[in-house]
Amino acid sequence: xxxxxxxxxxxxxxxxxxxxxxxxxxxxxxxxxxxxxxxxxxxxxxxxxxxxxxxxxxxxxxxxxxxxxxxxxxxxxxxxxxxxxxxxxxxxxxxxxxxxxxxxxxxxxxxxxxxxxxxxxxxxxxxxxxxxxxxxxxxxxxxxxxxxxxxxxxxxxxxxxxxxxxxxxxxxxxxxxxxxxxxxxxxxxxxxxxxxxxxxxxxxxxxxxxxxxxxxxxxxxxxxxxxxxxxxxxxxxxxxxxxxxxxxxxxxxxxxxxxxxxxxxxxxxxxxxxxxxxxxxxxxxxxxxxxxxxxxxxxxxxxxxxxxxxxxxxxxxxxxxxxxxx
Length: 326
Fold this sequence. Notes:
The chain is of the alpha+beta class. Helices cover 30% and strands 19% of the residues.
């Protein structure tokens, strides 16, 4: 797809489109130019598209194929991997297993959570650290695990590059977030949305209006629209339709907290009006659970005080999960 077609479609969605090619350059000026574009998007919308991101399209296709095979399995087979049996929140989440919008019906989606694979003997698992432990893998899909682990590793690297750009955008050294990016407890999530029913309950939707918990979310979408983003300018929901070759990136609450609300964590939801089965794959880059998130030095004007107290990544996520599932 040409840049001009990208531009026309993203203008309709009011979301920036950012070419990441310069981020892979050895030229600091090119990396800084990309960082400045990302910084503008973080201040304006907290949502943006990226392309020339370096993720292999063939690997993306494999991820979608394996995801569809997983969700096509009989209910009993999926329930055998229910995340309720996992202390690390890994595995299958049934249809309507989550309610992201307070007061609305449960979300019309089913999901599958995958994190960093850790054996039960790992000291972090023994200590009961949040979201640490083994995954639940479908034995009937022998290529599922290697595909998902390759993809998760690729997304981890991409998210790390984006965090470097965010550091530059905040007038910080490019490696500033290196500790945050080490030993990340990031989560890969597979999602399946059935079509919105004609007789839907009032307020029922694929995914209720919410902001994300953590650092960065990188969303891979299939060809079917559904993602809607709250637009402050129009005070309305706008469509973030799929664009071939792109990811939709958005900031989570932790980045907003870190930047003293200078960078936005924006409400979004999913309403699958395509009439088709919709699949998406968000990658939640949550960072090092031991890293302390405190207001960044470049995000305080003289005389200002931080809007939020310092908190560890793990503490922040425990509280967010408690609100959603508690």
